[in-house]
Design goal:
- Helix content is 35%, strand content 14%.
- The protein is an alpha/beta fold.
- The protein has two domains: 107 residues, Aspartate Aminotransferase, domain 1 (Alpha-Beta Complex), CATH 3.90.1150; 243 residues, Type I PLP-dependent aspartate aminotransferase-like (Major domain) (Aspartate Aminotransferase, domain 2), CATH 3.40.640.10.
- The strands form three sheets. The chain has a seven-stranded mixed β-sheet with strand order 2-8-7-6-5-3-4, with helices on both faces. Strands 9-12-11 form a three-stranded antiparallel β-sheet, with helices on one face. A two-stranded parallel sheet has the order 1-10.
- Strand 5, helix 7 and strand 6 form a beta-alpha-beta unit.
- Helix 2 packs antiparallel against helix 8 and helix 9 packs parallel to helix 11.
Length: 371
């Protein structure tokens, strides 16, 4: 078992007595990110207009290399940056065929950044959307679509979606995008086999521990070369080639936007470097979370185990989901006892992270039983 709680002292000590079990929602940041945040401020004060050189010329390129190692990508340059995943959603949707209604295949369990935007366009007749159960994606893909959007780990249950390679093989000419926000740094992810075929997006808000404002997307070469929703950063690498019209970079920078707050890049860079330094690999984090999940369920015997949406024998991420008719009341009751969880409708989610210890789980069980 990992014991790294001391490295999160400032977040964990900010509210004495609080038990935070929503790692899948807002993961605490390790202490090293505070210095990184201050470094961003100090560089802005010292360099002013020149601050972008160390950000785009060093911080981001070093972060690209780190993320590429974690995903086993062959080329770090395929990674693009955005302050949130919604920017990537909009750029991908703005890359679909014009002159007809694009066909989209997805599930009914995608995150709001995608589902809300797609539903709104669907209202206007600008998209034709087919929603299926995750295990039916590959068989349905053969019907022919322009875009296929799926999650690696479903945000409303924790289930790991299997068969992404089969989905890629069945996708034909469709653009394939995988939302990896609940898999990156929560479990081992080897994207080398899909690097030439599928987009993969994630960010720092959850298990990567860098906080909000720093998301990334792997952009497979040759796919969606000229997004219509585009910022001026997307021209980097294409400005000196004498192209007519609107130039684009050939690598992942083609999906870049415009000016942004760079502090998230500093924090995420620091968090991932720290994790590497203490050998907190995705595999170790995943094993740690699953061991704590098992301890939690054992401690809760006779209470909630029958309400588990994804059982301990199933492939799952680092949080557990309980289908509770009175989930809202339970969440409020837990919060009153200084236990932080989160909820999606009647589904209460309890998440486990690198900052938890066995003692934390035991304290959680004790408080819950008292309720």
């Amino acid at each position: 078992m990992l014991d790294l709680a001391a490295h999160f002292s400032q977040f964990l000590g900010a509210v004495p007595g609080r038990l935070h079990f929503a790692a899948h929602s807002h993961h605490p940041w390790p202490d090293v990110t505070r210095a990184a945040q201050m470094q961003a401020w100090d560089n802005a004060a010292r360099l002013m207009d020149g601050k972008w050189a160390p950000i785009l010329g060093h911080k981001w390129s070093e972060l690209q290399k780190t993320i590429a190692r974690l995903l086993n990508l062959p080329d770090p340059a395929t990674l693009a940056y955005a302050p949130n995943t919604h920017e990537f959603v909009c750029r991908i949707l703005a890359s679909l065929p014009a002159g007809r209604v694009p066909r989209v295949l997805t599930t009914g369990a995608e995150f709001h950044s995608f589902t809300r935007q797609v539903a709104r366009l669907e209202e206007e007749g600008l998209l034709a959307v087919t929603r299926v159960a995750p295990d039916r994606l590959a068989e349905t893909a053969a019907e022919g679509f322009d875009l296929i959007w799926a999650s690696h780990v479903l945000f409303n249950s924790g289930l790991v979606v299997a068969g992404l390679e089969a989905l890629a093989a069945a996708a034909g000419e469709a653009v394939l995008v995988v939302d990896g926000y609940h898999s990156f740094m929560a479990m081992p992810v080897d994207w080398s086999g899909l690097a030439g075929r599928a987009f993969y997006l994630s960010g720092g808000y959850k298990y990567a521990m860098g906080g909000e404002g720093c998301c990334f997307m792997h952009c497979p070469p040759g796919w969606l070369a000229r997004p219509r929703n585009t910022g001026w950063y997307a021209a980097f690498g294409g400005l000196g080639e004498g192209r007519q019209g609107v130039p684009y970079a050939a690598d992942g920078w083609r999906f870049m936007g415009a000016t942004f707050d760079p502090s998230g890049i500093y924090r995420l860079h620091a968090a991932l470097n720290w994790a590497e330094s203490v050998e907190a690999t995705p595999a170790a984090i995943h094993a740690h979370a699953h061991a704590l999940q098992a301890r939690f369920i054992t401690g809760l015997q006779g209470m909630w185990e029958d309400w588990l949406v994804v059982g301990l024998s199933q492939p799952r991420g680092n949080f557990l989901t309980f289908e509770l008719p009175d989930a809202e009341a339970w969440q409020a009751r837990l919060e009153a006892a200084q236990i932080i969880t989160d909820r999606r409708g009647t589904r209460l989610r309890v998440g486990f992270g690198l900052y938890h210890t066995e003692a934390d789980v035991d304290a959680l069980v004790e408080r819950m039983r008292a309720l």
